[in-house]
Every structure is written in C-alpha cells, then in structure tokens.
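2024-03-11 09:14:02 INFO worker-7 job=invfold-0412 stage=load source=structure_tokens
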C-alpha cells in the first residue's frame, strides 16, 4: 500500500507540470487584413494557443503565426499560451500585443 501511495503522490506532481508563459510576443508586417505574430520557444511546450481579443483562434506547433481575415482600420489584442499535450496543461498568457490594421 505504501508503494501505491508513493505512486499517487508522484502522479499528482506530474499533473501539475505546466509550461512557462511565452515571452517576447511581437506583431509585425501588419496590413489591412493580417499580421505576423512571433514569440520565443518555451521548453516543455509542444504547442501554442493563439488568442485574439480573448478568444482562442487556433493552435500551432511553431513560434510564429499569421493572423489573417482581419478587418481594415481595426484594433486587435493578441496573446499566446504554451501547451503540453502529455500533461494536458496550458501556461499563463504571454504579454498582450495590440495591433491596429491599416486602412
């Protein structure tokens, strides 16, 4: 029984592993319909969730994403979270970048 309790404690500890929040989120090459997002890779992350105005848009495995189908002359807020599919965890949010598309 003691071995089982140790295993339970170990399993509980593993479930708490979360990747760190992505850092250095930037937006560039913004046009009237798209913007390029990039951020630093996070160890222990195997994916990233992209959020626009607080709503999840998509998930990617790399550290760049082109947000498209945006509306001209409109302000958007983006942030990214890191995910770990093995532990089914999601990090805190990155910094927020505010983008205003061109006219």
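2024-03-11 09:14:09 INFO worker-7 stage=emit residues=103
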């Amino acid at each position: 029984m003691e071995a089982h309790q140790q295993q339970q404690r170990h399993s509980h500890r593993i479930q708490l592993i979360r990747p760190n929040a992505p850092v250095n989120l930037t937006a560039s090459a913004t046009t009237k319909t798209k913007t390029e997002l990039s951020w630093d890779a996070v160890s222990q992350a195997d994916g990233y969730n992209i959020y626009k105005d607080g709503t999840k848009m998509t998930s990617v495995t790399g550290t760049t994403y082109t947000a498209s189908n945006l509306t001209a002359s409109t302000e958007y807020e983006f942030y990214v979270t890191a995910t770990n599919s093995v532990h089914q965890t999601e990090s805190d949010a990155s910094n927020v970048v505010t983008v205003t598309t061109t006219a």
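2024-03-11 09:14:09 INFO worker-7 stage=report msg="The chain has one helix and eight strands."
2024-03-11 09:14:10 INFO worker-7 job finished
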